């Protein structure tokens, strides 16, 4: 595949950035996916200006026009899911099957919000005053900044851009630095979808320059961010200072509890899928495996045997289960946490080392430590194929360990007990709960989000997206 140069998209025009940044292929550093130039603050401001200028007219566009445009985008992504999935696999490193699945999900999300554009909810109530009608309607919030991470470079932009446009907002989308190709692919499809100029803009560059210029621009009305806790909390302070509507989806340290009564085949599959698929680079990854003492040794033996069957390698190759870590920076983080595991006295049960392949890439063996709840690897988000195994005395202890974290995105339990499953669903301090399922893997038509340090503001996805992307108006009419 030839190398491409990816551009930004502002006011209906493709805009070249400065310099020549390589878009790395983490499985083969010698063959970059492409190159791109980065914008400066002034160019980023132009994108916000373009979106703000386009907003008044677009906010009054017909729901059918918006539905047709989003449907076009969804159909094209679905028709090209194999090609887009291949781009994603080369750029981010998840396996081809996972990447094609993500592309399909992005297409389905655009299709879902095409329908939602035609179903914008409202209410009409009787007033407390005779002869007066009260209407509650929803209007777009305005110009929305979208800042996305690298780990779902098609699906996360889709689940922010699609509802933003469906409800009549204009958009400036800033992708993560290491996935400009997927961002460009989305922008390229949107550029042919019939949107008026300025309604959708995409800006390539660093968080420090482009992200900051976006957030600091007075023309911005709302900010939807997904990324790490430190970045999210820094942005929250800036947003609060100027009363910007904000939605943050951040990190996780998601527990998967395995009780003594669990079907251990199911439990091991949930653990392996949740902790290691997509190279463990999911905010919903099961990075804490909490196993009841009675079955602990058997669980360890089974998961070690299962991990030995997994192949780490080039995500485009058949038979590969786990692709490379997405970047050198993330690999350095993963290796530093493996060292921290050793330093804190955790016992290495699997992996813990880089893997050599035919190409130079960021390959890391799936890693499992028997840890203590206070160890850094059991408390801090690593965002790689590294999991901490914790021993629990009984269900109550397991639940307490599961909730003993600053995060609250997703919590899972493997059990055949209705009593424990029901109790866990009610008492897990998380925005999402899974019973006999991996913590990662969610449906696009229902709300997504967490509690505690994991999330801030209204939920994403499904019908709940209307909360963030619209503002409510209450109108009174004397009959
Ligand atoms: P990150 O916080 O480093 O970057 C996220 C985005 O913010 C990038 O586009 C980056 O360029 C931008 N950014 C960085 N500094 C900025 C600044 N000062 N001003 C404005 N923008 C700035 O996160 P990442 O490494 O790209 O992604 C990994 C993180 O994302 C993990 O913590 C993971 O848990 C989280 N994540 C959360 C969810 C969720 O829905 N909860 C989903 C996926 C990933």
Automatic annotation (TrEMBL):
The active site is at residue 249. The keyword Oxidoreductase applies. One of its GO terms (molecular function) is oxidoreductase activity, acting on the aldehyde or oxo group of donors, NAD or NADP as acceptor. Residues 14-474 form the Aldehyde dehydrogenase domain. InterPro entries: Ald_DH/histidinol_DH (IPR016161), Ald_DH_C (IPR016163), Ald_DH_CS_CYS (IPR016160), Ald_DH_CS_GLU (IPR029510), Ald_DH_N (IPR016162), Aldehyde_DH_dom (IPR015590). The keyword Oxidoreductase applies. Gene3D superfamilies: Aldehyde Dehydrogenase, Chain A, domain 1, Aldehyde Dehydrogenase, Chain A, domain 2. Keywords: Oxidoreductase. Pfam families: Aldedh. Belongs to the aldehyde dehydrogenase family. This is Aldehyde dehydrogenase family protein. It comes from Luteimonas viscosa. The lineage of its organism: Bacteria, Pseudomonadati, Pseudomonadota, Gammaproteobacteria, Lysobacterales.
């Amino acid at each position: 595949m030839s190398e491409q140069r990816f551009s930004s998209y502002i006011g209906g025009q493709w805009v070249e950035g400065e310099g020549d940044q390589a878009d790395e292929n983490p499985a083969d550093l010698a063959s970059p996916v492409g190159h791109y130039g980065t914008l400066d603050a002034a160019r980023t401001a132009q994108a916000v200006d373009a979106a703000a200028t386009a907003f008044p007219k677009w906010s009054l566009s017909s729901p059918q026009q918006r539905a047709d445009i989003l449907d076009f985008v969804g159909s094209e992504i679905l028709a090209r899911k194999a090609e887009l999935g291949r781009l994603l696999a080369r750029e981010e490193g998840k396996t081809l099957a996972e990447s094609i699945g993500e592309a399909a999900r992005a297409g389905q999300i655009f299709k879902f919000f095409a329908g939602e554009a035609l179903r914008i909810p409202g209410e009409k109530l009787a007033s407390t005053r005779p002869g007066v009608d009260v209407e509650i309607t929803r209007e777009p919030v305005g110009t929305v900044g979208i800042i996305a991470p690298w780990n779902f470079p098609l699906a996360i932009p889709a689940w922010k851009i699609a509802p933003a446009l469906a409800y009549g907002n204009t958009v400036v989308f800033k992708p993560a630095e290491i996935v400009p190709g997927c961002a460009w692919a989305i922008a390229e499809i949107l550029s042919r979808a019939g949107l008026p100029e300025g309604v959708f803009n995409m800006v390539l560059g660093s968080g420090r320059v482009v992200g900051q210029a976006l957030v600091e621009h007075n023309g911005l009305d709302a900010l939807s961010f997904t990324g790490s806790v430190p970045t999210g909390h820094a942005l929250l302070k800036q947003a609060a200072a100027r009363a910007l509507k904000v939605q943050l989806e951040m990190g996780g340290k998601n527990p998967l509890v395995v009780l003594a009564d669990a079907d251990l085949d199911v439990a091991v599959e949930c653990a392996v899928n949740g902790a290691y698929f997509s190279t463990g680079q999911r905010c919903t990854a099961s990075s804490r495996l909490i196993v009841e003492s009675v079955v602990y040794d058997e669980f360890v033996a089974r998961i070690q045997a299962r991990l030995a069957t997994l192949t780490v390698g080039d995500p485009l190759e058949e038979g590969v289960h786990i692709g490379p870590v997405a970047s050198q920076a993330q690999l350095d983080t993963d290796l530093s946490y493996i060292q921290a595991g050793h330093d804190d006295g955790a016992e290495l049960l699997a992996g813990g080392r880089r893997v050599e392949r035919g190409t130079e890439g960021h390959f890391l063996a799936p890693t499992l430590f028997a840890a203590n709840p206070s160890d850094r690897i059991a408390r801090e988000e690593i965002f790689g194929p590294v999991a901490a195994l914790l021993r629990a005395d009984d269900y109550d202890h397991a639940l307490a360990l599961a909730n003993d974290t600053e995060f609250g995105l997703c919590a899972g339990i493997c059990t055949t007990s209705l009593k424990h499953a029901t109790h866990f669903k009610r008492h897990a301090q998380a925005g999402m709960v899974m019973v006999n399922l991996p913590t990662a893997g969610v449906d696009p038509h229902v709300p997504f989000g967490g509690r505690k340090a994991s999330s801030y503001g209204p939920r994403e996805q499904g019908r709940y997206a209307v909360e963030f992307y619209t503002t409510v108006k209450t109108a009174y009419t004397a009959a």
